[in-house]
Design brief:
Distance between the termini: 36 Å
Strand content: 15-25%
Helix content: 25-40%
Number of helices: 9
CATH class of the largest domain: Alpha Beta
Number of domains: 2
Largest sheet: 6 strands, mixed
CATH superfamily of the largest domain: P-loop containing nucleotide triphosphate hydrolases
Order of helices and strands: EEEHEEEHHHHEHEHEEHH
Number of strands: 10
Strand order of the largest sheet: 6-7-8-3-9-10
Amino acid sequence: MSALLSVESLTVRFGGLAAVDDVSILVEEGEIAGLVGPNGAGKTTLFNAITRNVDPERGTVRIDGHDISGRRPEDLAALGLRRTFQNLALFESQDVRTNVLIGAHTGARTGWLRAALGWGVRAEERALGARADHLLEVLDLEQMGGAVVADLPFGTMKRVELARALASRPRVLLLDEPANGLREAEVLELEALLRRIRDEFGVTIVMVDHHVRLVMSLCDHVVALAAGRVIADGTARETRSDPAVRRVFLGESA
């Protein structure tokens, strides 16, 4: 195993406040890693800095050893990095299959000249369509391909966003609050689904979630943040029992 995602000394400041303060994290290939922390700990800001939605003051982000720190957000999918959002970023007026196909086209290989001349486009369109249909099957959405996204329940919309992110064949997938708003039965389904995605598609997953039971049950290793800094980094058992984590989460005294 090798570190597929490397975050080194990342710092993000808003005015005088360090929302992310000298954070370093290594995520091994094939892992499911979790980030936990109270509100305001810097979890989503860290995701935003990794994906270039905010500019860090300093620090480096690497995928498989390649520095992606200066890349534009729209370039990251081609480099193997995709994410989902707390607030769903779907094309709600379009149907489910179209949303997934949009994600597939993000990772399309046909260059602009080949596309303009029609070289290889039909073959690639067939391949992208087949991948979209396979993802609809894996995420139990195959009966909803023609349904308009805006008409779907929230939990189903979450699966559509996940399918769209997977359609571009990411190596690293960042999930921001995937269990937020789900019923407990749906959380259990999500846990099984994320394991299947990791195993079937070989995707390394990093997730932020307030559902601590899910994170501790699912993740190979867990990083705890507080006030923008890493306070613990280890297995779920190690992080859960760390004295600093227990003080922050449970209010226990030293």
